[in-house]
Amino acid sequence: MSEIPDDLRYTATHEWARDEGDGIAAVGITDHAQELLGDLVFVELPEPGTDVAAGGECGVVESVKAASDVYSPLDGEVVEVNEALADSPEGINEAPYENWIFKVKMADPAQLEALLDAAAYAEAVEAEEH
Amino acid sequence: MVKKTVLNETHRRLGARMVPFGGWEMPIHYGSQIEEHHAVRRDAGLFDVCHMTVVDVVGPQARPFLRHLLANDVARLRTPGKALYGCMLNAGGGVIDDLITYHLDEHRFRLVVNAATTDKDLEWMALQCRSHEVEVRPRHDLGMLAVQGPRAREKALPLLPESLRERAARMAPFNAAWDANWFVARTGYTGEDGFEIMVPRTEVTALWNALLEQGVRPCGLGARDTLRLEAGMNLYGQDMDEETSPLEAGLGWTLDLSDPERRFVGRDVVERQKEQGGLRRFTGLVLEGKGVLRNHMKLYEAGSPVGEITSGGYSPTLERAIGLARLDARAGEALTVEIRGRRLPVRLVKPPFVRHGKALIEL
Q: Cβ contacts (< 8 Å) between B29 and chain A: which residues?
């Protein structure tokens, strides 16, 4: 069973979001997502300054097995990207909740609370496996 | 019905992620495909290859039959134990399967064929052998393990029956030795040294566990694929199939046309193709820059499509995306690949990319 921290919010497409204060949220992919993908070998980061819509493509993670789009859980503007992942994409395999991919300045911070909580995400993962 | 090898439960206990492959449920990795890949390049790795089928061809006309059935010439197999790689073609010159043939004695040869193609292979052989005094015997009673890597042989040798150990230690690459129950070949699909070992099904699990105790790392199909791709070895169903000429899949070297009397199946067609020319070209590729090449990605030259990647992936040894591709005869050298709507430059190289732990191409 993969790890699903209680203090984060989630999407059904396996992103997590964390409140960083000042209306900014960090976004990454979940432990379950990295497990499904296998060893990551390449991360395509979004451009800082890009406007994103919730559910919109915002980067790509590629593993030995497959490429997978990363979707923004929130409306807003990309204000920072995790450049360290360009050289060490495997960081996401090792610590998926420490290695965020990008940060969004939220257009509507209430959106964050409306995402799945840990229990609801665990249910979504469970449902997917059956 | 998905088939399971005798090691299915063992794989699960080792934490394998299981996937369907060629009608079988097989381990794709046991945690990290890349670490498994490195284990084979640097030390020793172990693969369950019980899904592949061992087929013995037995009878007074075994050799003439195989000279008719296969595009490579088993006349090259003069000493017992010697192995030969080659293709079984259909009448249209397409590849039914690629396989290894081991010479056991004058009236016995052993073939190893792919899992997904086993049924059609056996049907084809049954059809082709009618006019020969020969019997085609699938050996479902045997299971096969591949132990591969620079330290694979030293770790496997102590586990072999004493009657075999000495011979197995001495034998050259692409040779085999056997006793009444065990068969050990110095062959593989990784570009490293090692053994492929066939034993009775009932002994597979004990051998697997004993090899793990020797410090050999279990490896899944994921690592097997990146290892064979780095080694420039074709994968049936991806790099070639029944619609593909071996001449357009980098397999021309396996067609033996030296004996004009030997009219093997598909010979007329491949000879004609050779004469006519204009064949598509099979090549290796390296992606310049970041990203991963994948099967079926399209290749372009100055905006026009000129071919397709047949096997693409990430090379853990080179830390670069590599691939095998088929190109139009006219295609030049300055090509791009389309990845998610963008065209990125690729460099054409001659496979293999890696052999015996060493990069063979310039980065």
A: 38
Cβ-based contacts of A64 with chain B (< 8 Å): 33-34, 222, 226, 313-314, 316
In a domain, A89, yes or no: yes
Residue A56 lies in a domain: yes
Residue A1 pLDDT > 80? no
* pLDDT attached to residue A18: 98
Q: What is the ipTM of this complex?
A: 0.87
Query: Pairing between strand B45-48 and A76-81?
Result: unpaired
The C-alpha of A86 sits at a distance from chain B's nearest C-alpha, in angstroms, of: 9
Digit-coded pLDDT (tens) for B189-220: 999 999 999 999 999 999 999 999 999 999 99
Which chain A residues are Cβ-neighbours of B316 within 8 angstroms?
Answer: 64
Q: Is B125 helix (H, G, I), strand (E, B) or coil?
A: helix
pTM: 0.95
Query: Is the separation of the CB atoms in B167 and B79 below 8 Å?
Result: no
Q: Residue B11 — pLDDT band, cuts 50, 70, 90?
A: very high
Residue A95 domain flag = yes
The CATH number of the domain holding residue A80 is 2.40.50.100
Q: How far apart are CA B225 and CA B26, in angstroms?
A: 13
Tokens found for residue B113: 């064929």
User: Checking DSSP bridges between strand B335-339 and strand B298-301, what pairing results, if any?
Assistant: antiparallel
Cα distance from B158 to chain A (closest Cα, Å)? 34
Please indicate if any CB of chain A lies within 8 Å of the CB of B295. Answer: no
B323 in reach of chain A (CB within 8 A)? no
Using an 8 Å Cβ cutoff, are A37 and A31 in contact? no
Count of structural domains, chain A = 1
Q: Domain limits at A13?
A: 9-120
Residue A127 in domain: no
Distance from CA of A90 to the nearest CA of B (A): 10
**B222 with A64: Cβ contact below 8 A:** yes
Query: CA-CA distance, A78 to A105, in Å (whole number)?
Result: 6
Shortest distance between the Cα of A122 and any Cα of chain B, in A, equals: 20
Q: Across the strands, what pairs with B314?
A: B321
In sequence order, which residues have a C-beta less than 8 Å from that of residue B44 and are 6 or more positions away?
A: B147, B148, B149, B150, B151, B152, B155, B194, B214, B215, B216, B217
